[in-house]
Specification:
The complex is a heterodimer of chains A (427) and B (284).
Chain A: E1 3-9, H1 15-21, H2 28-38, E2 43-48, E3 52-58, H3 66-81, E4 93-96, H4 99-108, H5 120-134, H6 140-159, H7 169-181, E5 188-193, H8 196-207, E6 212-217, H9 220-227, E7 233-236, H10 240-243, E8 249-253, H11 263-272, E9 278-282, E10 299-303, H12 304-370, H13 376-407, H14 411-421, H15 423-426
Parallel strand pairs in A: 5-6, 5-8, 6-7, 8-9, 9-10
Antiparallel strand pairs in A: 1-3, 1-4, 2-3
Helix pairs in contact in A: 2-3, 4-6, 4-12, 5-6, 6-12, 7-8, 7-12, 12-13, 12-14
Chain B: H1 3-27, H2 34-60, H3 68-89, H4 96-117, H5 129-163, H6 169-173, H7 178-209, H8 211-214, H9 222-243, H10 249-271
Helix pairs in contact in B: 1-2, 1-4, 2-3, 3-4, 3-5, 5-7, 5-10, 7-9, 9-10
Classes of the chains: A alpha/beta (427), B mainly alpha (284).
């Protein structure tokens, strides 16, 4: 077989090298052109994300050996990016033939990701496949391989809980907000203070649909900087108490030495908002919100410890699901390997049939020359008989061939067939 | 029971049990499609019971609605018929995890009751249109209150974990948001209250039509008093939710506690043979 992956990822290679070898979306067309010139006849897919750069090559029609293709892939990466090959050769991993389906399936399912179970990678693999198709670089083998990878990723997502539960503090906060409010589109987010974590949490909330952002800070310039990208409102810190009832979600991250809001503030706010729930994310250390606020019905308070505890629990849950997900991947990879092996004996089978058919045709014509008085019906009968004969002779070897190909590396079988039937001479 | 009725009844019970098992597998982190299997099994189970009761109706020439088994089956069928479309429509199908086990337990009880008292049927004189309407809407109301109670229980469970800042775990990860639960609970409470009011109105018409059966002091029968208390309670909850912001854990707690208490009182009345009008001189 001749499948090859050459690549680097977050585990094998530092960021400063990965970023030099990444393929921005607008450079992909040129990259495929260059790759087609470097490895002519090979199918190719380039997968480039912030955590990995991989080149998938199918060498079925290229006549290239895997080792030669590997060197060409390294040369392509070096030339295209203008980075000496020695800078990344040690970080490069090469995966060949039988190991490729399992690798791609793990990547597409998020099992090989920095954050195990993340789902973004599935879309990135799909985008890479579409870009390769647009560049007319996907052959029959890669097409089948990637289609299977998408189906495996879907199976892993639906049959295991590996993608469930957020694993970063800010995404856990957003997840909790969704658990309380469902749709965040109509929710008002109040940001108190303007720390980095608060900014990140607000960004996540906005990504999940939150549209109304209000920032309260003693430093109005910093508040404006945080609010501006979201078209948010800036209010004076002292106005917070009066406006608190407008907030569905409060992200608090000030450097205040003590509590800035307590039970009485929230009790008053709840009365003014007809007891609709409020979600308070207190990521300040020391805390901004007095924990007694959580004793009120419809006030859900989460501090940094609570968020970290949830993130940790979700990460552990994902790890527990990892083995189940891996089982699915390995099972599907075994099926895919069978398909690839069957595929790899197809040219030999076609060659055998073609060779015998040519012999049959020659012998039939010789017979007709020796028996010139044959009628058209008799000639047709002889033709049919010879055709049946060849097919009957080939039936068993072909069935055996296909069967054996699914059990072991078929290259020895293919080699034997080529020698037995003189297929290379026919070429 | 006829062979068809027995077969369909047994199938209905098995499907309800299967739905509960599948729901638990889903709750334990099984594939998401299990919840659709659970919904399908509940619907099919209800179908089995409908066939069974239809066969019995044909055999008895009277709609079977007077034994404990018949009552439970009617409750299960109506609950499933409301739950399946309601939960899907509101995208809260994860709540089958709460509904299916309760319906499975009721199915087993109904099967047991059917085995021991299958032959009884309604007296002919009770089978009037107002009575059928009264019983039908009462079952509908109880099914709606039951589902509201399920929403309330799910709300309390989820709110308690969020309050404690505890990790959500697999089940709650797949649950709808608190606001969705609160809204669904509110809607079910409103529909249940309306259905219960209709049941009481139909009961009133039945009283006028067959007063001699119920005796002069029918309105003092414990189950009538309980029905009034229940209706006043649920109307009050609905009104407070609509006009004065009674929502969240308090509303959920009151619905769960209120419905459970009413159910418990009905069971006590039944056990004490007080769930009839004979107590105050009626004949039924």
């Amino acid at each position: 077989m001749s499948l090859l992956v050459a690549g680097l990822n977050h585990a094998s290679c530092p960021l400063e090298v990965r970023e030099r070898l990444a393929f921005p979306a607008d450079s992909l067309a040129a990259a495929y052109q260059r790759l087609a010139a470097t490895v002519p006849g090979a199918g190719a897919v380039i997968l480039s994300t912030c955590n990995r750069v991989e080149i998938y090559l199918s060498l079925y029609d290229s006549g290239l050996a895997a080792s030669a293709a590997q060197e060409k892939a390294v040369g392509f990466l070096a030339d295209f990016h203008g980075v000496p090959a020695d800078c990344f050769r040690d970080n490069l991993y090469v995966i060949e033939d039988d190991a490729v389906p399992g690798h791609l399936f793990r990547v597409a399912s998020g099992l090989d990701s920095l954050v195990v179970g993340e789902t973004q990678i599935h879309g990135q693999v799909h985008d890479a496949y579409l870009a390769a198709r647009a560049a007319d670089s996907v052959d029959k083998v890669l097409n089948g391989l990637f289609q299977r990878a998408f189906s495996v990723a879907k199976a892993v997502r639906t049959d295991t809980a590996i993608g469930e539960g957020k694993v970063s503090v800010s995404s856990v906060a957003v997840d909790l907000a969704v658990s309380i409010f469902g749709d965040l589109a109509a929710r008002t987010v109040f940001v108190v203070g303007s720390g980095d974590m608060a900014g990140l949490t607000v960004r996540h909330l906005v990504e999940h649909g939150a549209q109304r952002i209000t920032v309260a800070n003693r430093d109005m310039a910093r508040a404006t900087r945080l609010a501006q990208p979201y078209g948010g409102e800036v209010i004076a810190f002292d106005a917070l108490g009066d406006r608190l009832h407008e907030a569905d979600i409060i992200v608090s991250s000030t450097a205040a030495p003590g509590f800035i809001l307590d039970r009485s503030h929230f009790a008053a706010a709840l009365r003014r908002r007809a007891h609709q729930p409020m979600f308070v994310i207190d990521i300040a250390v020391p805390r901004d919100i007095n924990p007694d606020a959580a004793t009120l019905d419809n006030v859900y308070l989460c501090d940094i410890d609570g968020l970290q505890k949830s993130a940790q629990a979700n990460l552990e849950a994902r790890r527990r699901e990892f083995d189940r997900a891996l089982e699915i991947v390995e099972r599907k990879a075994a099926n895919c390997r069978e398909w690839l092996r069957r595929l790899s004996v197809e040219p030999a089978i076609a060659g055998m049939a073609k060779k015998l058919d040519a012999i049959r045709e020659r012998e039939v014509e010789r017979t007709f020359a020796e028996l010139p008085d044959l009628t058209d019906d008799e000639r047709e009968a002889i033709r049919r008989m010879s055709d049946r004969l060849v097919r009957r002779i080939l039936d068993r070897p072909i069935a055996h061939f296909k069967h054996e190909a699914t059990r072991e590396d078929p290259s020895a079988l293919v080699h034997l067939a080529r020698r037995l039937f003189g297929l290379d001479e026919a070429r | 029971m006829t062979a068809l009725a027995t077969l369909a009844f047994g199938l209905g019970t098995l499907l309800n049990l299967a739905a509960a098992i599948v729901a638990m597998l889903f709750a334990a982190g099984g594939p998401r499609r299990l919840i659709d299997v659970c919904g399908g099994a509940l619907a099919a189970g209800a179908g089995g019971y409908i066939v069974a009761q239809g066969a019995r109706w044909a055999a008895l020439e009277a709609f079977p609605l007077t034994t404990l088994a018949d009552g439970l089956v009617a409750f299960i069928v109506i609950s499933a018929a409301i739950a399946v479309p309601f939960l899907y429509r509101h995208r809260i199908a994860g709540l089958f995890c709460f509904v299916a086990p309760v319906l499975a337990v009721l199915s087993v009880v109904a099967s047991g009751a059917a085995l021991y008292g299958a032959s009884s049927q309604a007296p002919g004189r009770l089978l009037t249109v107002p009575l059928a309407l009264h019983a039908g809407t009462a079952f509908l109301a109880y099914a709606l209150f039951f589902l509201a109670t399920v929403m309330g229980a799910a709300y309390l469970l989820m709110a308690s974990r969020l309050k404690r800042q505890a990790p959500k775990g697999r089940l709650l990860q797949r649950m709808p948001s608190l606001e969705q639960l609160d809204y669904a609970l509110y809607r079910l409470l409103g529909l249940g209250t309306a259905a219960f009011l209709l049941a009481m109105a139909a009961g009133g018409i039945w009283v006028i039509a067959q007063r001699e059966l119920l005796g002069p002091n029918w309105w003092l029968a414990p189950k009538v008093l309980l029905a009034w208390a229940a209706e006043i309670f649920f109307v009050a909850l609905y009104g407070l939710r609509t006009f004065s912001g009674l929502r969240g854990p308090k509303l959920a707690g009151l619905v769960v506690g209120g419905f459970s208490s009413i159910l418990l009182l009905y069971i006590v009345l039944s056990a004490a043979q007080l769930r009839t009008y004979q107590f105050w001189g009626g004949q039924v």
